[in-house]
Every structure is written in structure tokens, then in C-alpha cells.
Design goal:
This protein is α/β, with parallel strands linked by helices and 206 residues long. The chain has one domain: 3-Layer(aba) Sandwich (Rossmann fold). It is 54% helix and 14% strand. It has 8 helices and 5 strands. A 5-stranded parallel sheet has the order 2-3-1-4-5, sandwiched between helices. Helix 1 packs across helix 8 and helix 3 runs parallel beside helix 5. It is globular and about 50 Å long.
């Protein structure tokens, strides 16, 4: 692949989407071709699955169903957008990817992580991020940032979100070459400076 694949991860309210947006504007000012996508979603079919996954009315959804729906949305996004963009040399920035399923459905819901990784390899064709940022924030502080209207995942109890946070921290320890854990407690500008320092090395910006 000619392009670079960068993913943004983090618990609810960690500010990852804001940081992704700031980075995109920075890279475009530097003349880089950038594609920004979100998960689940990004393309028509995957956006339809997103609506099912996040709808608070779908309380009866099983953990297995939830896991497979996330994977289905990812499979379509990879085939339709990510692979073609990377082949063209585009920098692809994705708001969540396979790590989210490992953490939210694996650590959070108890779905077998080995199964998630195996299925993930199939749906992504083995494509992995060149660099992943995890924005870490205490659970209650993060949830307080999400606003009054919460989706099906945000509505889950604190104990679930604590497992998610610990899952992310575990991931950061295990895959420190790829994954960079950044505190989300600084100012937006301070956090962005840290992000750009890693990005400048990855895409050779001076």
C-alpha cells in the first residue's frame, strides 16, 4: 500500500474526533491528500448498520450479533473506501477501527478476543494501521462530555466503560510500537502537538 493508515481510538468523550479533525486540517495545509472516515459507517451500507448498532431501542441485541454487525460494517468500509484509497497513496484517517471491537466487545462484553482478531483479519484483508492514537480519560469525566442524548453504547453502566478503558490501556502496553496512548486531559492544542510530533515522523513532514 502506498498510503498511510492512521486510526484514532479512545473511550467515550475522549476528544479523539476533535483531534482527528485538527490533524486533517494540518495535513491538508501541508499539501497531503487525506481521507477521513468513521466507524461504524463511512459508506452507505455501513452507515445503515451504524443506525442499528447505536439505536437505544435495540436493547435485545446480543453480544454476538453486536460483534458481527461491527465486523460487517468494517468489511464494507475496507473494501469500498480504505483499500482503494491506500492503493492511491492517500493518508487514511479512521475514527475507530478493529481495536474498538477488541476493546468494546472483547474486554467490555466478554466476547472471545481471539475470535475477534481472527475474524478481524478476514474482514480487513490483514490491513493494520501504521499508527494508532488512544486518547485516555477517566470514565466519568469522559461520559460527562457526551451530552444528554446518549447512544446505545454510551448508556451502558460505568463498570462496562471501566473495562473498555482498561482494555485500551492494555492494548497500549502490548503494542507500544504501533499504539500511542495520550492523556486527553490537556488542552486541545497541547494534545494536538503530541499527535503532530508522531505524524511528522510517519509522513516525513519537517
Amino acid at each position: 500500500m502506498k498510503g498511510k493508515f492512521i486510526t484514532f481510538e479512545g473511550s467515550e468523550g475522549s476528544g479523539k474526533s476533535t483531534q482527528a479533525g485538527m490533524l486533517i486540517r494540518y495535513l491538508r495545509r501541508k499539501g497531503k491528500k487525506v481521507l477521513f472516515i468513521r466507524e461504524p459507517g463511512g459508506v452507505r451500507i455501513s452507515e445503515g448498520i451504524r443506525r442499528v448498532l447505536l439505536n437505544v431501542k435495540n436493547k435485545e441485541m446480543s453480544d454476538t450479533c453486536e460483534t458481527l454487525l461491527y465486523m460487517a460494517a468494517r468489511a464494507q468500509l475496507v473494501d469500498e473506501l480504505i483499500v482503494p484509497a491506500l492503493k492511491k497513496g492517500t493518508i487514511v484517517i479512521c475514527d475507530r477501527f478493529l481495536d474498538s471491537t477488541i476493546v468494546y466487545q472483547g474486554f467490555g462484553n466478554g466476547v472471545d478476543i481471539g475470535f475477534i482478531k481472527s475474524l478481524g483479519k478476514f474482514v480487513t484483508h490483514g490491513i493494520a494501521p501504521d499508527l494508532t492514537f488512544i486518547f485516555d480519560i477517566p470514565v466519568q469525566q469522559g461520559l460527562s462530555r457526551t451530552g444528554k442524548t446518549k447512544d446505545r453504547i454510551e448508556c451502558r453502566p460505568l463498570s462496562y466503560h471501566e473495562k473498555v478503558r482498561q482494555g485500551y490501556l492494555d492494548l497500549g502496553r502490548r503494542e507500544s510500537n504501533r499504539v500511542k496512548v495520550i492523556s486527553a486531559l490537556g488542552t486541545k492544542i497541547e494534545i494536538q502537538r503530541v499527535v503532530r510530533a508522531f505524524i511528522n515522523k510517519l509522513v516525513a513532514i519537517k
